[in-house]
Amino acid sequence: MEKKQTAILLIHCPDKQGILAAVTDFINVNKGNIVYLDQHVDYVQNTFFMRVEWDLKDFIIPRDKIEEYFRTLYANKYDMVFTLNFSDVKPRMAIFVSKMSHCLFDILSRYLDGGLNVEIPMIVSNHADLQWIGEKFGIPFHVFPITKENKLEQEKKEMELLRNERVDFIVLARYMQIISEDMINEFPNNIINIHHSFLPAFIGAKPYHAAYERGVKIIGATSHYVTTELDAGPIIEQDVVRVTHKDTVKTFIHKGQDLEKIVLSRAVEKHIDRKVLAFKNRTVVFS
Amino acid sequence: MEKKQTAILLIHCPDKQGILAAVTDFINVNKGNIVYLDQHVDYVQNTFFMRVEWDLKDFIIPRDKIEEYFRTLYANKYDMVFTLNFSDVKPRMAIFVSKMSHCLFDILSRYLDGGLNVEIPMIVSNHADLQWIGEKFGIPFHVFPITKENKLEQEKKEMELLRNERVDFIVLARYMQIISEDMINEFPNNIINIHHSFLPAFIGAKPYHAAYERGVKIIGATSHYVTTELDAGPIIEQDVVRVTHKDTVKTFIHKGQDLEKIVLSRAVEKHIDRKVLAFKNRTVVFS
Amino acid sequence: MEKKQTAILLIHCPDKQGILAAVTDFINVNKGNIVYLDQHVDYVQNTFFMRVEWDLKDFIIPRDKIEEYFRTLYANKYDMVFTLNFSDVKPRMAIFVSKMSHCLFDILSRYLDGGLNVEIPMIVSNHADLQWIGEKFGIPFHVFPITKENKLEQEKKEMELLRNERVDFIVLARYMQIISEDMINEFPNNIINIHHSFLPAFIGAKPYHAAYERGVKIIGATSHYVTTELDAGPIIEQDVVRVTHKDTVKTFIHKGQDLEKIVLSRAVEKHIDRKVLAFKNRTVVFS
Amino acid sequence: MEKKQTAILLIHCPDKQGILAAVTDFINVNKGNIVYLDQHVDYVQNTFFMRVEWDLKDFIIPRDKIEEYFRTLYANKYDMVFTLNFSDVKPRMAIFVSKMSHCLFDILSRYLDGGLNVEIPMIVSNHADLQWIGEKFGIPFHVFPITKENKLEQEKKEMELLRNERVDFIVLARYMQIISEDMINEFPNNIINIHHSFLPAFIGAKPYHAAYERGVKIIGATSHYVTTELDAGPIIEQDVVRVTHKDTVKTFIHKGQDLEKIVLSRAVEKHIDRKVLAFKNRTVVFS
After folding, report:
1. Is D231 considered catalytic here?
2. Do the two domains B6-86 and B92-285 of this chain adopt the same fold?
3. pLDDT digits (tens, 9 = 90+) for C53-103
4. What is the b/e burial string over B120-149, where b = at least 16 CB atoms within 10 angstroms of the residue's CB?
5. What tens digit of pLDDT does each residue of C194-205 get?
6. How far B88 CA sits from the closest chain D CA (Å)?
7. pLDDT tens across B82-139, in order?
8. By C-alpha distance, which of A271, A280, A212, A278 is closest to A8?
9. I want to staple B50 with a disulfide (CB 3.0 to 4.6 A). Which of A137, B11, C52, D117 is the partner?
10. Among residues C220, C173, C176, C172, which one has the least CA distance to residue C197?
11. Which residues of chain C neighbour D285 with C-beta distances below 8 Å?
């Protein structure tokens, strides 16, 4: 089955009468066939959100002109913030890991299966432990050992590498380092982390140990965009699993790893499919 | 169907060889027929936990002597902390409420249905709003309006009332007051609260507002024993429900109320059935 | 806080370009302020679904003319099936019960709490067991004992009563009788049942016993509109809870009752709020 | 950390007084240090179930004599059915696949991570599609194309191979063939299947399509032991995920695959850890 070439528009703006009609009109009158449309109005913040996707086959505006036309004719008028993407342009994703392989494996298995519309030009790590996985799957694996002293310097090298490889976004697949402000600012809402707790509970290190100490009956995992405040960025996805008094820190970790990898992969898929819209530290996640 | 008269023993002690055999032996040789047995060994804390229930019909030790015999023959030897209860002695429960009725209704509907092996000699409130429910169901409803100034004084009166009515434990069914240390100390591990968040996230006031602000994708409710540290006592039960960007604080509250009442009622049932054992700020909850 | 008077339009029709714009335009140009809008396109069935709600305060079409205008100007053009309702007109709901009270209590507690925008002119039962609840809450309770012989005759009387009281929809709150075709046809997609299993598993009688026999690890409950095929109507809501080898039929029933009442009440709330749209044995449930 | 050598005893027998004491006594007096003990009494079937694991370091019975001693001294007396296994003897597992890789990848990623105490001498398939995965991970991959005509003949060859490689149990990781009675009888309660529905709903082919047609609001996956009746064997694990009217068959499949792989891997882990005990078409799954 040949896949359609589609354009995907993600929009948010102050809610006003007629926005939805205007956008669908723009697509319809120019002979675009809408294949996905979802919108959300946040009446508390008086903000309009929309994701629309249309088939480009008969669309009369050339694809390299769509952004300009849309901006001129509509976006400026409605004070829209928008992104335009095309389904046949794969975003480029870097995966950062440390020593644990479960999240990396889960992402790679989807990728190899053809399930992720993405390119993976590199895996980056502060340790060499998982290098064999990169080699097995033919993905360049770069090791940047990090100490207190060399941290900023190593991150500079990483950023250079990311720029050279035109990386669009970064997935922290249980990368056990705090990302510095410079890198965060270079990839706003484009660094996805998995935190192994139900945020905002158990921020920071060793959340399973803390959860065990607290005696919770449910543990969780949270994927979120990284911001400069630790574990406080916009949440994309969360999930939980029951534990009992029979569980130990060890079984918390074991049960938690299944959560972590699924929650992270779901977030990564949503991000790749342009279905996540971060706005004021919260996210709209289209279905 | 006539209900069996049973004895219920809840035990914890340092784990040693032969405890389980000793306890079951005590029951078996004295012609008690075990109808429930569950045990748990916490190998981290090296502690043994057990709940055993047996039919008293042919038991050769008179019921008013069981505690003494068990203590003398076994409990002292193994450094056990234990409680002995009888299924035909209903514990006496006070319900504390403020203005919201959903948790109160849920408990009362189970009670009226014959599903709770408990007596409810009173409902206590700092407001008169729900007095009509007490009247409708024929349960004495006592109003103790509370201000900063009269709080300790009012609690004293409440405690007197609780003592006079031989109340065994208290359920805070969305009672919007912090309980003072005196009352907590009089009812150790016998005050059950429902907190409308997934603890330890969102301790304190207005957790749904805080959860909305944080942009979580799942909300929760937690029932726990009240200790002197706010919302930090041993957790008995938790549950969660998904929310999306379409939810508002109002729908958080609405969805949350269904969680709150079920989570609280489950904890109350477990407590009444002597299935909860609090130990060092965690609980063992037998099935 | 005074509640707004709103109009609620539920629509489905073959998907065509411009429908959404047309409907929102109808409201906007006539000075209706939209307070809720959600739409869904089913690209498999090529069908458009929509729920829109707007404030009537400044709306220039008189409310008794809205239906006619909308039909003439839009609905006919787009082959729409639609219903128009007003938030200040409470639908009239009959509750059918047998001997179990948990679902009835749950609905009534929401109703008494002001949480259901509905009128309850009657409870109907084939047994007198729960009559006391009707009396306690001041709701007329009608007993129609049913035998094989008198079933159709009794249902005729029930239908007469339902007509006399202008009942809009019926909730079967664990009513242990199969509804006959005549009554189903008189209330198409307006009889809500709760089945105590995860449909389509365990259709028919004694689903908890069947689930226990099958050795499932999760049990469920399903609310659905009643159609002439047993337990096969459009599903509105489902939920599940975990069970283990420690559970028995008795604890299945106990855990299940909590599911049943919440799942049924959620479906009833959605129905009352005009958020359910049944289409070809499936439902669109707006958030 | 050096791993302990332990013995694991799985037992079931008619419930009688003193069994638990007898078994723990057997271990204790022979200087075995118990590291895990869980038991369950099914009072409906009057059957006792137990899993006990002990450190062999100081155990005075030689490990090759334990089975004989236990049988002679206890098992015969109590009519026990039991299995004895040692933690340092890895069971040998064959994985059967067809064309879908997600379950295979999930199992292999756990295996490579050191998380499965198992040996995988082979992957078997009726198609060559996933051969590259076997090659990548260095696991022999055997292709047995299956037609109506050659099915029994091919299965004979498979069984010969399984015998030659001393395979203990088989995992059907989305293997799209029905296993014949001969093979099932050779591996009683040792063939684990994943069915992509919440059994017993949607038995047989295309369960996601059937679930979509039925309009369910939750989909599930079930891992179970294979018996001669299709999809009717003892269930080991189930899990579910919510769907809405926005989902399609395609997204059912996508969401379902995440369920399938986790549910299957959990069942495989439990089986490897000797924590599953099948009894009369139900399972006891120890924690």
Report:
1. yes
2. no
3. 999 999 999 999 999 999 999 999 999 999 999 999 999 999 999 999 999
4. bbbbbbbeeebeebbeebebebbebebeee
5. 999 999 999 989
6. 21
7. 999 999 999 999 999 999 999 999 999 999 999 999 999 999 999 999 999 999 999 9
8. A271
9. B11
10. C220
11. 217, 244-245
Domain locations along chain D = 6-86, 92-285
So what CATH class is C92-285? Answer: alpha beta
Mutate which of D19, D20, D242, D255 to test chain B, going by most B C-beta atoms within 10 A?
D20
Does any CB of chain D come closer than 8 Å to the CB of residue C233?
no
List all residues 6 or more positions away from C176 whose beta carbon is below 8 Å from its beta carbon. Answer: C98, C99, C126
Place of tokens 């106990």: C254
Q: For C43-166, list the strands marked E by DSSP.
A: 47-55, 81-86, 92-97, 119-125, 141-143
Prediction pTM value:
0.96
Report the candidate in D179, D271, D262 with the shortest Cα–Cα distance to residue D234. Answer: D271
Q: What is the pLDDT of residues C156-175, one digit of tens each?
A: 999 999 999 999 999 999 99
Q: Is the pLDDT of residue D17 over 90?
A: no
Q: Which residue in A106, A231, A247, A273 is the catalytic one?
A: A231
Which residue is closest to B236 within chain A, CA to CA?
A217
pLDDT in tens, A79-107: 999 999 999 999 999 999 999 999 999 99
Structure tokens of C212?
């226990």
Give the one of A28, A37, A41 whose C-beta lies nearest to C37's C-beta: A41
SS3 state at B87: coil
Domain D6-86 adopts which CATH fold? Alpha-Beta Plaits (3.30.70)
- What pLDDT was estimated at residue C2? 54
What is the least distance, in Å, from the CA of B21 to any CA of chain D? 5
CB environment A109-128: b (16+ within 10 A), e (fewer): bbbbeebbbbebbbbbbbee
Q: Which two tokens stand for residue A252?
A: 């918390």
Distant-in-sequence, close-in-space partners of D284: CB < 8 Å, separation ≥ 6: C245, D12, D40, D49, D276, D277
- Assign D150 to helix, strand or coil: coil
Q: Is the pLDDT of residue D18 over 90?
A: no
In angstroms, rounded to a whole number, what is the distance separating the alpha carbons of residues D118 and C50? 54
Q: For the stretch D25-62, what's the b/e string if a residue is b when 16 or more beta carbons lie within 10 angstroms of its beta carbon?
A: ebbbeeebebebbbbbbbeeeebbbbbbbbbbeebebe
Residue of chain B nearest C265, judged by CA positions: B258
pLDDT computed for residue C1 by the predictor: 44
- B50 within 8 A of B39, measured Cβ to Cβ: yes
**Contact residues, chain C, for D248 at CB < 8 Å:** 43-44
Q: By the 8 A CB rule, do C50 and C72 touch?
A: no
| D37 touches B: beta carbon within 8 Å | yes
- Chain B residues whose CB is inside 8 A of the C265 CB are 258
> What pLDDT, on the 0 to 100 scale, is given for residue A25?
87
Residue linked to tokens 């008494």: C112
For residues D203 and D231, what is the distance between their CA atoms, to the nearest angstrom?
A: 6
Kindly indicate whether the ipTM for this predicted assembly is greater than 0.85, answering yes or no. Answer: yes
- What value does the mean pLDDT take over residues B51-63? 96
Q: Are C204 and C196 in contact (CB under 8 A)?
A: no
D87 pLDDT tier (thresholds 50, 70, 90): very high
CA distance B148 to chain A (A): 31
Cβ atoms of C244 and C218 within 8 Å: the answer is: no
Closest to D182 in 3D by CA, of D147, D235, D228, D122: D228
Q: Minimal CA–CA distance to A169: which of A113, A225, A237, A209?
A: A225
d(CA B230, CA C276): 42
Asked if A113 and D105 touch (Cβ cutoff 8 Å), the reply is yes
Q: Which residues pair with C116 in a beta bridge?
A: none
CB C9 within 8 A of CB C50: yes
Q: What is the pLDDT of residue B1?
A: 44
